[in-house]
Amino acid sequence: MAEPKIGIVGIPGKWSTEALADAVEARTGFRLVIDMADVVLDLHERRLMHGDVDLCALDGLVIKKISESYSPHALDRLEMLRLPEAAGVRVFSPPNAILRTIDRLACTVTLCNGGIPMPETLVTESVDQAVEAVGRLGTAVFKPLYSTKARGMAVINGSTPDREIRAAVEAFHADNPVMYLQRKLDLPGRDLGLVFLKGNYLGAYARVAGGEAWNTTIHSGGRYASFEPPGEWIDLAKRAVDLFGLDFTTVDLAETADGPVIFEVSAFGGFRGAKEGAAIDAAALYVDHVLERVRP
């Protein structure tokens, strides 16, 4: 019996994309890395072509990365992948599940409606309301609705003069008409990534801030470290994961004086953090999970 043909949607040459492709090839002998910038959607013929390969004819697709950076355009790429899904191709994670995690606002509203504790959050298009919120919150982190690794985020300190606060808010608003801001929490120099495969907890790691950076991302000089969270934190992260229906994800959690809070449920999960911080071979485990569901 022929092995299933599984394609990897991602960024060619990127470590996590290639790790997944390696794991698929090792198990099936088939390798296909799909850059969504190169696909053609033909709705009349009901085909989604990548070169001479019709993705609707594959057995499965694993979405590791939909684009180099997040934007509303990334949502369009996910919509295109609904065609092979409708044709019977198993897609991991389902496009509709990922749609609600790439958009920060959609993710946050889902978490809020699910009763998940989060930092105090305000969303507005009004500069006046945002300026007032900074004064009330003390210091606020302004976040683009589509971003990863803290890119495009701004920290605005409520103790600075009013004119400086307004100028900073207006500068952020110029690129982000819908402003998403959260109270800046007093964290212990780290936050956590809790790794889940189809809702099952695999392990956790810490992201430790480097130098004077306000955030813990590796992009800003942070590093990964091992960490074993308490059981109640794992249970909280599991509740958050269950709201989305993702096959693989990482939950971003932080400890505060008032207990744990969730920042987000990741659209794709952190392979490198799982590997370096928790010794989890996410690519191998994920591919095993996929093949169990694709093989007849």
Mean pLDDT over all positions:
93
Quantity of strands, as a count: 16
Major pleated sheet: 5 strands, antiparallel
Level-2 CATH architecture of the largest domain: 3-Layer(aba) Sandwich
Tally of domains: 3
Q: What global shape is seen? A: globular
Instruction: Output the helix-strand order.
Output: EHEEEEEHHEHHEHEEHEEEEHEEHH
CATH topology value of the largest domain: Rossmann fold
Give the percentage of residues in beta strands.
25-35%
Euclidean distance between termini CA atoms: 10 Å
Indicate the CATH class of the largest domain: Alpha Beta
Helix content: 25-40%
List its salient traits:
Rossmann fold, 10 helices, 296 residues, D-amino Acid Aminotransferase, Chain A, domain 1, four-stranded parallel sheet, globular, Dna Ligase, domain 1, 26% strand, alpha+beta, five-stranded antiparallel sheet, 3 domains
